[in-house]
Amino acid sequence: MTYTARFSEQWELLDTIYGDAVAAATESNTGVILLANYVRTVIIIHPVDVNDALDVDIEQATTATGALSTFDAGAKDITVATADTKPSVIEIRHEEFAAGYEYLNVEVTTANTGGNGNEFVVEVWGEPVYKPAATTNLDSVTGRAEAAADGYR
């Protein structure tokens, strides 16, 4: 990313999970995301108000309806503890997929320790091969209005 490039031109929001009042022992998924035209993926987990630990598993598939399997031998899986208040970031390069795999799913399962009322957000961002990135999954993008005219872009 160059100095003058806008983040929203370089990275695309691919999917989200908005966990609101999620009960203990509950699984939430992004659903499979095709990453064939992306060189990198970043998954950001925001533990807004977590009463149960979050077990975050990254899974891969060969097709949109194919069976999910563990990504990178579980090396990208994390646990977000109840005391964690800052975001966690998982970074993935396309070449880390197993041969023949190019679909990704993020699975978040709440532990069964604290009860209910878990609030968290998961964002999946991708850096597309072909830019600019699409902004269709964003409500708005705010930046300098004169960007194109003054060479900022």
Give me the number of helical elements: 1
SSE string: HEEEEEEEEEE
Per DSSP E runs of 2 or more residues, the count of β-strands stands at 10
Rg over CA atoms, rounded to whole Å, is 17 Å
> What is the terminal separation in angstroms?
12 Å
**Rounded average pLDDT:** 92
Global shape:
globular
Largest sheet: 6 strands, antiparallel
Helical coverage, percent range: under 10%
- Share in β-strands: 35-45%
List the quaternary state of the chains. Answer: single chain
Which parts are unreliable, with pLDDT below 50 for 5 consecutive residues or more? none
Structural class: mainly beta
How do you describe this structure in short?
With 153 residues, the protein is mainly β. It has one helix spanning 7-10; strands at 12-22, 27-29, 33-34, 38-49, 54-61, 69-70, 78-80, 88-93, 103-110, 118-128.
Overview of this structure, please?
By secondary structure, the chain is an all-beta fold. Helix content is 3%, strand content 43%. A hairpin with a 7-residue loop joins β5 and β6. The radius of gyration is 17 Å and the shape is globular.
